[in-house]
Write the structure tokens for this entry.
Amino acid sequence: MNTIHALGLWTRRQLAALGQAAGLFLRLLGMLPATLARFRLLGDQIHFLGNYSLAIIAVSGLFVGFVLGLQGYYTLQRYGSAEALGLLVALSLLRELGPVVTALLFAGRAGTALTAEIGLMKAGEQLSAMEMMAVDPVRRILAPRFWAGFLAMPLLAAVFSAVGILGGWVVGVVLIGLDGGAFWGQMQSGVDWWYDLGNGVIKSVVFGVAVTFVALYQGYTAKPTPEGVSRATTRTVVVASLAVLALDFLLTASMFSI
């Protein structure tokens, strides 16, 4: 009976947390007009989330492009299709690696910063003070950060993919000596604007929403103690990473199975 009782309590807590998260998510969606009305605040958050993550995104994209160029060349050379290296690099980045790796890096860099920031504001009773002054902390603090993540993530994924393609070109054309015209020509003829590029953008938008919301929710519901903020930051990385990978499977299955 004790086991059944504990299982019931755990299930009830999880359902309550799920309902709280769904309610907060719907509130954030409904605050889009109010957030756009304060565009300067939104712009500051885009700068915080996007610009400060730009360096790690660009460097990671460059090295991923290097690796794709090398591995792709060695694989395609076995089948006499080395000239298709540009197409291989572009499709790998635009369809999968660009949105997914960018989202994982975004969760580790910007997501943890958001959770720590909101958690420390809660621990310092700043959110409670705002409520006492009749200021909604969800509207003033969470909503601009949520929509900033929504806008910043696709831009970061585009930078990652562009730099990665450039890295593949450096390895394939400059270092290995493939024909540059074949590299770009195969890419231009094989990449579809909607089927490949458009679906990659949709993925990056969904990942941006998921990672940003997880980070904000974990910070907003963290225990107002240093240990609670630390655990919330760790949960952000774990939950956001798992959410990105699960959503990637679902989106890939729905987009590219037709």
Remarks:
- The chain has a mean pLDDT of 89.
- Residues 137-176 form the longest helix (40 residues).
- The radius of gyration is 21 Å.
- The CA atoms of residues 64 and 164 lie 6 Å apart.
